[in-house]
Design brief:
The chain has a domain at about 105-185: Histidine-containing Protein, Chain: A. The protein is about 70% helix and about 10% strand. It has helices spanning about 5-105, 110-130, 155-170, and strands spanning about 135-140, 145-155, 175-180. The longest helix has about 100 residues, at about 5-105. The protein is rod-shaped, with a radius of gyration of 47 Å.
């Protein structure tokens, strides 16, 4: 073999070796890219799952917050209604006390018995008379004959009759009508 042939053989052999390492390097690069792509896909999937779980948790929190807000609003409304009723009752008692003070007479134990007697008398009449069969009337008597009627009566006629009975009862000085016409509660 000549020198040229040996050199040519060496060059071809070197080129083959170089080509093998280029192919191997290309194969390793492709494998690395596939691994990187899979890792990126797994990362994206994990992030999507985390985002979905976060959104579900936020939705549950929003629903619970709305439920609590609604319950708080309902409780506040109930307290406000009770406060309004209490306020009206206090205002009425103040008016009743002013009326007693204006008359210049003080309430005594005998007067309390009279108030109790008036209440009992009216309740008896409202439960025994047929005109009040479907009525639910509450009677409060205070301050020597000040009567307050509350509850429901079936008709305007029954309301008028209840007021007439109260005004005609011995010892009654004034009647406050808080009756409602409607079905018995």
């Amino acid at each position: 073999m000549t020198v040229k042939t040996v050199l040519a053989s060496l060059m071809v052999g070197g080129a083959l070796l170089a080509g093998t390492s280029v192919v191997q390097a290309d194969s390793e690069r492709k494998a690395k890219n596939r691994i990187d792509d899979r890792a990126e896909a797994a990362k994206d999937k994990t992030q999507a799952q985390a985002d979905e779980e976060k959104e579900k948790a936020q939705n549950r929190a929003d629903i619970e917050k709305n439920r609590i807000d609604q319950k708080a609003d309902a409780t506040k409304d109930q307290i406000d209604r009770k406060a309004e009723v209490d306020k009206k009752n206090v205002e009425q008692k103040n008016l009743d006390q002013k009326a007693v003070a204006k008359s210049g007479k003080e309430t005594t134990v005998g007067d309390d018995v009279s108030d109790a007697w008036i209440t009992t008398k009216l309740k008896t009449q409202y439960t025994t008379e047929s005109a009040f069969k479907n009525a639910s009337i509450k009677v409060d008597t205070e301050n020597r004959g000040f009567v307050r009627l509350q509850g429901t009566v079936p008709s305007e006629a029954a309301r008028a009759k209840a007021l007439e009975v109260a005004r005609a009862t011995k010892g009654v000085r004034e009647v406050r009508d808080d009756l409602i016409v409607g079905a018995k509660k």
